[in-house]
C-alpha cells in the first residue's frame, strides 16, 4: 500500500486488541508495542470504563539509542551507569505536550491510547536491553571484583509507571481503586522483570516535586531493574549478617510498641525510624515476611492501598503546599537473601519547614555521616497530627477488610 497522508491517517485510527490477563482484585492487563519496539502494558481498573481495544502507536520513531555503559569505581566497587542519551529527555514540558498523557492529534505522547494505568519502557533508560554488543555482566561474582577501568553494558530495564491519565497529581491524589491498580502493576512488573536475564534487583519508586528533581508534572513513578545488587541493599545484607536473620521482624516489633508509630493495620505498619536521617522519613513494613510485591496477597494489597494513601495525604498535610518526597520500595534481590530481606517502603523528604529544605552538606554528601534536624519522635507526632487532619479533609474510602482491621498506633 502506498505511503500517503490518507493511509497514515487510517493507520493512526487503527486499534489493536489482545488477550486480557486477569490479575487479583478484578484488575486486568494487556501488553502492546510502541512504534520503536518498546513494550507498553495497560492495567485496567476493575470498574474500568475503557474498551478492550487499544490504539496502535502511529508515530515514526528513531531507532532506540545504544544501551548505556557502566563504569566501576575501584575505590568502592560501585558501578556508575553513564547514560548520555538521558540528556535529551523532556524537561517540564507545557501541559499540552505532556509525554505521559494519552496521545492526541497535537500531542504525539508516549501512550497511544487512553488508560487507567500504563507502564512502558523508558525511551532514554539508565539500564536497558543488550542491543549491539556483548559486554554484558557475567554474574554477581564478575560485578563484585575490583579492577581499574572496568566497564560493562548497563543491562537491565527502566520503566515508567503512569498512575493516571490526569496531567497533575501524585500517588496520594489517586482514588483507592486506582491506587490498588498501581500496586497490582508493581507486583506484576516485579514478577516479569525478575524473570529477565541479568536482572538482579527490581526497584519501584516515585519522585514527587521539582525540589526532588522531577522533570514531568504528570503523576507517575518508575521501576528500575538493575544488573547488580544495589549498594544500599548490600549494606542491609551486611547488617543482617551481623545482627541475624530476624532483623526486620525485631525492628517491626520494637517500633509497634513505641512512640514513633504512625499507622497500623492488620497487614502493614508505618513508623518514623529510630535513626531517621531526613526531616520527614517514614518506613512501612508488612507484618509477615515477604521478599517483594509478588509475595503479597490480595488482602495485603487491598489494605496497602488504603494505608499508603492515608500516609501520603498526611505527608502533604504537614504544610499548606505539597511536600516533595522520594517514595522508595526496597525489595529483596532476585534469588538472593529472599528469606532475610523484607519488602519495605522508605519515604524521605528534605522539607524541614514550610519554607526550608535540608541540603546535604559536606559531612553527609562527602562522608555519608548524617546529622538529623528534627528528633524522630517529634517528627512522628507532627505526622500523626497531619494524618489526622488529612483523614478529615481527604478521607480514603476503606475496603471492607481495612475498615474492620485498621488500628490506631500505640
TrEMBL record:
Residues 70-229 form the Galactose-1-phosphate uridyl transferase N-terminal domain. Its EC number is 2.7.7.12. Keywords: Carbohydrate metabolism, Galactose metabolism, Metal-binding, Nucleotidyltransferase, Transferase, Zinc. Its cofactor is Zn(2+). Pathway: Carbohydrate metabolism; galactose metabolism. InterPro entries: GalP_UDPtransf1, GalP_UDPtransf1_His-AS, GalP_Utransf_C, GalP_Utransf_N, HIT-like_sf. Belongs to the galactose-1-phosphate uridylyltransferase type 1 family. PANTHER family: GALACTOSE-1-PHOSPHATE URIDYLYLTRANSFERASE (PTHR11943:SF1). This is Galactose-1-phosphate uridylyltransferase. It comes from Paramicrobacterium agarici.
